[in-house]
Structure formats: structure tokens, C-alpha cells
Design a protein that fits this description.
CATH topology: TIM Barrel
Bound molecules: phosphoenolpyruvate
Largest sheet: 8 strands, parallel, barrel
CATH superfamily: Aldolase class I
Strand content: 5-15%
Structural class: alpha/beta
Shape: globular
Amino acid sequence: MRTPIIAGNWKMHTTVEEAMELVRAMLDGLQAVPQVERVLCPPFVSLYPVAGLLKGTDIGLGAQNMHWEEKGAFTGEISPLMLKGLCQYVIIGHSERRTYFGETDEGVNRKVKAALAHGLTPIVCVGENLAQNEAGETDAVVSGQVRAAFAGIDAASARRIVIAYEPVWAIGTGRAATGEQASRVIGGVIRGTLAELYDAGTAQAIRVQYGGSTNAKNIREFMAYPDIDGALVGGASLKADEFVEMVRLAAKVKFGA
Ligand code: PEP
């Protein structure tokens, strides 16, 4: 069975002090649910202090972005060498990066390869926007993004990647997809594409989260679908009690515990 994974993407929220306060507020609750892989992705400047708070726990730490080069004249960028040893995960290709910062499928692929090369677990975001959804292009868009992100990556490395299916129209809108919609894309389109790229076993081994307006009220619906392995959580991950509750509910649905 794939280990469920719930990750909190704090986006450009929280000062260092606030980030530490938030971690302190959720730490005990998160530690009580070891069946689920739990990951916090604060802003870059909080990675180091948050890593200190998480030391000795099994809570994972992730960055929200990364450059693919190890070093160089790339003002303002953060490299895999800087993240390595500090955190274990990195979100790559979030739709906000694609939309506001011009990230391309090719850049996403380079970042995924760089993350893997440095022992970081990439959480690769894919998903169609509203216009694409309404035009019936969801399957082609998502499949294309998966193919591009995994280009040139062998099956053993591919198994280390986590995919987050995040329909852009559902992110931060309060309008989540239904569990059925998400499961169709994840189980059909994404695992189908992975099976074509690799084989059925690899397609079943790769973990795929749903993301987009998840909260403590709707998380059970998504987790009830066998193809959905967890969630990438934005807004609700900034509320300690709600995020802990989401992790608890995820464990309850998947393991009945
Ligand atoms: C996200 O940022 O990846 C996200 C899914 O945000 P929200 O949960 O707020 O929709």
C-alpha cells in the first residue's frame, strides 16, 4: 500500500516568528499520526528555524520552489545544494509558479531531475485551468504535463516522485473538485499516462495527491478514493487545528484508525 502523504504549502505567508509559532501549535498533533507522511512547506527564510523545531521528529520539511542549477549568477534563486540537508521535499511546478513566474514544462522537468539528483523528493504539481477544463481539455493538459515532468526519468527514480493533481480553478477558490472528479483524473489520466510511460506497477507505486480547496470538512471525501494518496493543502495548512484534523481524518479513512 502507498503511504498517504499530506503536505502543507504555506505559500508567501508567515514571518519567521509566525512560522515557528505555527509549527509549535501543530507539532504534537502531527506527531500523533505517524501512519501518514506529514510535510510542512514554509517560505524559504523559515526553512532553517523550522528544521530546528522538527529535529528528532518524523515530520518532513519541504521548500516551495527551487532552481535546477547547483550555483551561479541567478540572483534571488535557491539551489538544490542549499536545500539538501535542510529539507527532504520540494514543490515543483505549482500553478502559481507557472502562471505568475513563467515556469514552463521544460523548466519543471529540469527541476525534477535536479531534485532527484540531490536526494530531494519532488512534489510535482499538474492541473488544468478553468478555460481548459471548460473546453474539455483536462485529460490532454494533465497528461501532457505529466509526460513533460517525467521526461528522461527512469522508472526507479520516477517512483520517488509525488504528483499533486491541482486543478487551477480549485486552488484558493473554495470550490474544490469532487472526489469523483479528482479520482477520475488521478486514477485514469495520471496513472494511465504513467503506465504508458513506464509500466502498470510503476503507475501504481507513484503517489498522487489531490490539491485545491481541501479542508477538514472535505478531506474524507478525497481520501475515500483508493487512487488518491493524500492532499497538497494551501489555506487550511495555515490553521494548526484544522491541518492536524485533516491529517487525523486522512489516517482514519485510509486505516480506520
Ligand atoms: C495549493 O496551494 O497548492 C492549494 C491547493 O491551495 P488551497 O488549498 O488554498 O486551495
